[in-house]
Amino acid sequence: MRYGLPLYQLIPAIALHAPGTSYGDLNYRLCRRTVEIWDGMLLLRAYRDSRVAEYAARQAAAAGLPTDEQRVIVEAAGFKAALHAKQRGRMPPQSEVEPDTSRRGDDIISEARWLARVAKAYQASPIVAAAVASADSLVDETIPDSRTGAG
């Protein structure tokens, strides 16, 4: 589950407990980390751009990836582009795009496995990188985020 760590580190502001705090129960820690990652993804939804999701979906389908892997790629691209947009203080002109919160399984382990796959795609997928680059090329079509004062 090491791939989940980068997503967790990207959104420390929502951590329920300070990183490094020792908790003996592995199930508790896995549950907390999974919830914190999902909370961070939800906090970024205003920065998600439907054009990034569409681009990633088209590229993943064209690459012949299985449907489940396409969903992983789309989620990773949406998250990474949203994080970049937030860091630049730019919001897409489209309405908010919700993260894919459909069921990944019946338990927290399945959720953590899903997030580990998203983290791996976030780090290593050339489709995710291309989708984020496509979002960066659309920067002129974004609007300043009045919450950050960037513009």
UniProtKB/TrEMBL annotation:
Residues 85-105 are annotated as: Disordered. Residues 7-123 form the DUF6545 domain. InterPro entries: DUF6545 (IPR046675). Pfam families: DUF6545. This is DUF6545 domain-containing protein. It comes from Salinispora arenicola.
